[in-house]
Design brief:
Layout lengths: L3 E3 L2 E3 L22 H31 L6 H30 L5 H35 L9 H19 L9 E4 L4 E4 L10 H37 L4 H37 L7 H11 L2 H9 L4 H11 L7 H19 L7
Antiparallel strand pairs: 1-2, 3-4
Helix pairs in contact: 1-2, 1-8, 1-9, 2-3, 2-4, 2-8, 3-4, 3-5, 5-6, 6-7, 6-8
Pfam families: 7tm_1, Rhodopsin_N
Protein name: Rhodopsin
Keywords: Chromophore, Disulfide bond, G-protein coupled receptor, Glycoprotein, Lipoprotein, Membrane, Metal-binding, Phosphoprotein, Photoreceptor protein, Receptor, Retinal protein, Sensory transduction, Transducer, Transmembrane, Transmembrane helix, Vision, Zinc
């Protein structure tokens, strides 16, 4: 084995030299230089500094503006809450442990940090699935006369929490476990070992199938059908400039959603799967650290993609930030008129751009 397995940890370095120590008790500067831990801590501070304000602003603006309390925005709000879970449950802890060079909070802290980080990430992922399904039902109308209402939104919220818990809770109760990973200052699911009695193999397979591949298939199917529906509607109204613009806007939004999702999570999922299927092979601490921490950036750009691209949300945010006045009111007023025309035109073709 090219790593050292201990009591609830796996350090990606052989202990042939005798320098490997528990990541719960000793600094891990033998893995990488101290400056690397300082850079990691600074990176987490940056994510906190950017992720907290934009997600908190989303919550605040929604509470302040009654017109934003719509069923669809409940799901968008849940996405912001998921990101805040990652900020408070994962980013702050990791920033502190990185400053010390090891996981100073012990096994209990590792379980707590791993749980909240996993819960937040999974809530975000399943919120995107619910958004995809909502867009598919509203735009493509596979069910005639369907209207996404408050009850559907609440069911969607309950679904995201349930699915997130089915991924985050099992490692706490004996099906797999949370251990320090990468540079040993943040915790995640144990992809590294086949420790007896905790059934790591079955949990990792379950997690990849249920909590990665299935969401990817659903998202691609829903948004694929959405793009096709928009194109069909635009083809029927070739002379309508607003419909053509609706096609471009929805297509752009879908491309950004898909690219952002894969940029954030595919590297981490790929590396985790490689480690799981090549247990005992040689890899360094940075091999897992880089994709794991890169995936955390989703807490920053998620609200930018799914909320800030929403015109109504954007206008309300500007009004809030400018103390009740929107300096772009006239421009937005003209845009609103065009949007109403667009909505009327597109509605006749069963299309509703996000």
């Amino acid at each position: 084995m090219n790593g050292t397995e201990g009591d609830a940890f796996y350090v990606p370095m052989s202990n042939a030299t005798g320098i490997v120590r528990s990541p719960y008790e000793y600094p891990q500067y033998y893995l990488v230089a101290p400056w690397a831990y300082a850079c990691l801590s600074a990176y987490m501070f940056f994510l906190i500094l950017t992720g907290f304000p934009v997600n908190f602003l989303t919550l605040y603006v929604t509470i302040e503006h009654k017109k934003l309390r719509t069923p669809l925005n409940y799901i968008l709000l849940n996405l912001a809450i998921a990101d805040l879970f990652m900020v408070f449950g994962g980013f702050t802890t990791t920033m502190y442990t990185s400053l010390h060079g090891y996981f100073v909070f012990g096994r209990l802290g590792c379980n707590i940090e791993g749980f909240f980080a996993t819960l937040g990430g999974e809530m975000g992922l399943w919120s995107l699935v619910v958004l995809a399904i909502e867009r598919y039902l509203v735009v493509c109308k596979p069910i005639s006369n369907f209207r996404f209402g408050e009850n559907h939104a609440l069911m969607g919220l309950a679904f995201t929490w349930f699915m997130a818990c089915t991924c985050a809770v099992p490692p706490l109760v004996g099906w797999s476990r949370y251990i320090p990973e990468g540079m040993q200052c943040s915790c995640g699911v144990d992809y590294y070992t086949r420790a007896p009695g905790i059934n790591n193999e079955s949990f990792v397979i379950y997690m990849f199938v249920v909590h990665f591949f299935i969401p990817v298939v659903v998202i691609f199917f829903c948004y694929g059908r959405l793009v096709c529906t928009v194109k069909e509607a635009a083809a029927l109204q070739q002379e309508s400039e607003t419909t053509q613009r609706a096609e471009r806007e929805v297509t752009r939004m879908v491309i950004i959603m898909v690219i952002a999702f894969f940029i954030a999570w595919l590297p981490y999922a790929s590396v985790a799967w490689y480690i799981f299927t090549h247990q005992g092979s040689e890899f360094g601490p940075v091999f897992m650290t880089v994709p794991a921490f890169f995936a955390k950036t989703s807490a920053v750009y998620n609200p930018c993609i799914y909320i800030c691209m929403n015109k109504q949300f954007r206008n309300c945010m500007i009004t809030t930030l400018c103390c009740g006045k929107n300096p772009f009111e006239e421009e937005e007023g003209a845009s609103t008129t065009a949007s109403k025309t667009e909505a009327s035109s597109v509605s006749s073709s069963s299309v509703s751009p996000a």
